[in-house]
Amino acid sequence: xxxxxxxxxxxxxxxxxxxxxxxxxxxxxxxxxxxxxxxxxxxxxxxxxxxxxxxxxxxxxxxxxxxxxxxxxxxxxxxxxxxxxxxxxxxxxxxxxxxxxxxxxxxxxxxxxxxxxxxxxxxxxxxxxxxxxxxxxxxxxxxxxxxxxxxxxxxxxxxx
Length: 160
Hints:
By secondary structure, the chain is mostly helical.
């Protein structure tokens, strides 16, 4: 196969991979390198395919961060700390993540309340201390900071 045919094949695989959801540059690169084991493309071909996708806007880590945080906030609320870890794991540069959270304010208090309200009723028959402990562990595991968790739990206890 010629280099141009390899590039078109790599882009075709990348388009298919991007069809289902947005991906980071690292995710696409790893996917193409995995496919590379079968097709034996050069490293340059993978780089050219990724550059072409970046130029068309199909790969944009800034847009990915915004979309990822918005999706998580609406479907599976998590705190800033967990979101940052997940984004790093997905291959987003730390500077992009920091820039995003510097400009975009995540309303952790509201997310924390919404998440706890779904669980608070389950624990209604538990002793107060046990309920508080479960709520604290539940929210901290989801990346909310101590102060937000404490205020949210106190708020829920006062409503009882």
